[in-house]
Amino acid sequence: MNPQSPASAYASDNDEDRELVRRMSAGDTKALTQFYERWSRPVYALVAHLVRDPDDADDVVEDAFYQAWRQASRYEPTRGAVSTWIVTIARSRALDRLRSRRRLREEPLTPVTLLDELTDGVSPDPAADAEEAERRERVAEALRALPAEQREVLELAYYGGLSQTEIADRTGQPLGTVKTRTRLAGQKLRERLAALRGGVA
Amino acid sequence: MKREMSHDEASESLAAAALDALSADEQAAVLAHAASCPQCGPELDALRQALAALGNATPASAATPSPDVEQRLQRIRVRLLARAKADRPPVAPERRSGTLGWLALAAGILLAVLLFNQSRTTAQALARASQRVAAESLALDTARGRVASRDREIQLLTGPTTSVVGLSTTGAADATALMFWDHNDNSWAFYAHHLPPLPAGKTYELWLLTPTSKVSAGKFTPALDSTAEVHATYALPKDALKGVAVSEEPAGRIVIIGTPGQK
Questions:
Q1: pLDDT higher than threshold 80 for residue B170
Q2: Is A73 helix (H, G, I), strand (E, B) or coil?
C-alpha cells in the first residue's frame, strides 16, 4: 500500500509515478494497485464532475485505469508528467460517455461554477493533506487571474465537456469570440501554472 | 472545416484541441499538424499539462456528491484488478523506442497529407474511417476487457477452484474484508477496508486457520484510507481451511474473522 497522497505534477513526485508505469508495462498488477491508490481520488473527482452520475463515473474510472494498464508501454515521459497522462485519458473517456449520452437524450447542461467550489463552501476532505490544499489553491489562483469571460469558456470546456460551438450556443457569444477566449485562456493558464511551478522547483 | 490546416490556423486552435473542444474534423487536423510541427507539438503538450492541473484539483466534495466514494473506489479497484489479472500480460510494447513510433506516425501523417493534397475527399473519408475504426477498436477492447473481467470475477466468486471467505468485525468498527483462494495455483488475495487505525508499534497479521494450526499469511499495515490488500501463495488441502482472521500484533487480539461459506 502506498501511504503517499496523490502527487502533484512536480518532477520529484513523477519519478515514482514513472517507475510504477514502467512496472505496469511489464505486467505488474501490484504496480497497478499502487498507481490506482495514488491517482484514483483526483481522477474520480474529475470524472464524477464531468459525467455527473455515480454509476457512469465508476465505469469511466475503471475504463480509464484499465486503458492506462493496457497502454502503459506507450507512455512517453518527454511529452508530460504521468499525472497529465492519466488525467487526459480519464477526461477523454468521460467526454466519450458524456457526449454519447447527450446524443441519446438531449440533456440539459448544468451550470459549472468551479472557482466557487474551489474557494468556498467546500468542506475539506479529511484525507486531503496540506500539499493537496496548496495545489488546489494554486489552481484557484491561476483561474482567478483570468478575466471572467475567459474563465467561463475554460470551465465550460474543461469541466462541462462542451465544444466551442456548444459554448457559443449556450453563452450567446459569436463562435469567433469563443475561439479567441479559449486561446487566450489556455495561454494564460499555461504561463501562470508554469510560473508557479517554476517558483516551487 | 474541410480543408488542410495551415500552421497559423492550427496554432490558434491548440488550446481548443487540448480541451477536446473542436469538431472531430478540426480536432484531427490540428492533431495531425501538431504531430509534425516542432512548434505546435510541444506547445500542445504544455497546454495539456496545464489543463491536467485543473483535473487534478477538481474539488472532491463538490464533484462527488455520493457519500460512498471510498466504497465505490474500492469496488472499482477490485473490478479493475480482476480485469487486469485476467488479461495479463498486457499489450506488449510495440517497439523498443518511442522515436521509431514517432517516425512511423510522422510518416503516416506525411502520407495522409499527400493523400489530402491529392484528393481531399478521399483523405477526409479516410480520416473519418480511421477515427471510426479507432473508436470501434477501443470499444471492442473495452467490451472484451469487461467480459474477461466478469469471467474472472465469476470464476473468483463461484468457480469450482475458488473459495471466498468474508470476514467481519469483532468490535465496534465496521471493518470488513474478503479473502479469495484459488485452489488451482494456491494463490490468496485479501482485500480489507474500514480497518481501525493501529496503535503505535503494532501491526496487523493475516491468519489462515486450520483444524490443527494457524498459518500466518503475512503482516501488514492499512493504507491511509484504512484499506489493505495482501497477496500470498500457500498450499493447503481443500477442506483444511476453517477460517481466516486478522489479529493485531503483538497483542494477538482478533480484529476481523470469517469462516468459509460466509460472504
A1: no
A2: helix
pLDDT at B32: 92
Instruction: Return the residue matching grid coordinates 499525472.
Output: A83
Residues 79-108 of A with CB under 8 A from B: 79-81, 83-84, 87-88, 90-92, 95
* Cβ contact, residue pair B84, A66, below 8 Å: yes
Nearest to A182 among B21, B60, B66 (CB): B21
Q: In this predicted model, what pLDDT tens digit does every residue of B216-239 receive, in sequence order? A: 888 888 887 788 888 877 888 878
User: Is there a contact between B64 and A164 if contact means CB atoms under 8 Å apart?
Assistant: no
User: Is ipTM > 0.95 here?
Assistant: no
Q: Which of A27, A45, A121 sits opposite B63 (nearest CB)?
A: A45
**Structure letter (DSSP) for residue A4:** S
| Residues B241 and B260: beta-carbon distance below 8 Å | yes
| C-alpha distance from B212 to closest chain A C-alpha (Å) | 32
C-beta of residue B209 within 8 angstroms of C-beta of residue B244? yes
- pLDDT single digits (tens) A158-201: 888 889 999 998 888 999 999 999 999 999 988 888 765 544 33
C-alpha cell at B79: 473490478
- Range 84-113 of B in CB contact (< 8 A) with A: 84-85, 87-94, 98, 101
Give the residue from A2, A33, A20 showing the smallest Cα distance to B224. Answer: A2
Query: Which helix (H) or strand (E) segment is B120 a member of?
Result: helix B120-158
Q: What is the pTM of this model?
A: 0.51
CA distance B147 to B202: 41
Q: What is the DSSP string of A103-163?
A: HHS-PPPPP--HHHHHHSS-PPPTT--HHHHHHHHHHHHHHHTS-HHHHHHHHHHHTT---
Pick from A9, A95, A190: CB nearest B47: A190
